[in-house]
Amino acid sequence: MNLTNAINERFSCTKYLAREISNECLNKILRAGIRAPNAGNLQSFRFVVVNDEKIKEKITSACLDQRWMMQAPIFIVVCSDIKTLKEYYPARHKIYAVQDTSLAAQNMMLAAFSLNIKSCFIGSFDEKSMKRALNLKDNLEPYCVITFGYSKESKITRRKSLDIFIIK
Ligand SMILES: Cc1cc2nc3c(=O)[nH]c(=O)nc-3n(C[C@H](O)[C@H](O)[C@H](O)COP(=O)(O)O)c2cc1C
């Protein structure tokens, strides 16, 4: 699948099949994540790959109990090593952490889509519960969770007309 198709056809998937994702595919997805542009090439994004049902349950609960998440065989929690970023960018580290992790997330979702693996970006979660669920060290902050899995769902999420987005 070419990149333009992946960009145009990706959608937020909330219905998954029980089919596992191979390590080979998972590796390709993670490698796409680390290819993302990132502040100063500090590569401060960190990924927690979760397939343990009990930990998935805790994450789902931290994500305001979005029950559909549990269908997905794999979650990746995209984190930032905020301490390293702060050392280099004392004034800009917070926004850079958001930017770094979001770019890595989109790379992973597009790479997954090209492998016929669907995903959904989840930004609404309780940070304290998420950190507790993952036993995250103090230098790490979670920024989003992405669910990944095979699916029969197919959707086109509409966008407004391009003109609206262009400020003249
Ligand atoms: C910052 C952010 C937070 C989001 N949080 C959630 C979420 O908590 N649950 C969910 O189902 N989708 C979530 N989404 C996915 C959006 O709902 C989705 O991207 C949007 O409706 C457009 O649909 P599409 O991804 O299918 O194009 C989030 C997306 C972003 C960028």
UniProtKB/TrEMBL annotation:
> In this record, what's one Pfam family?
Nitroreductase
Q: Does the keyword Oxidoreductase apply?
A: yes
The UniProt record lists the Nitroreductase domain at 64-150
Q: Which SUPFAM superfamilies match?
A: FMN-dependent nitroreductase-like
Kindly give the Gene3D superfamilies that the UniProt entry links to this protein.
NADH Oxidase (3.40.109.10)
Question: Keywords in UniProt for this one?
Answer: Flavoprotein, FMN, Oxidoreductase
Q: What cofactor is this protein dependent on?
A: FMN
Task: Enumerate the InterPro entries for this protein.
Answer: Nitroreductase, Nitroreductase-like
Can you provide one Gene Ontology molecular function annotated for this UniProt record? oxidoreductase activity
Q: Does the keyword Flavoprotein apply?
A: yes
What family, per the record?
Belongs to the nitroreductase family.
Q: What is this protein called in UniProt?
A: Nitroreductase
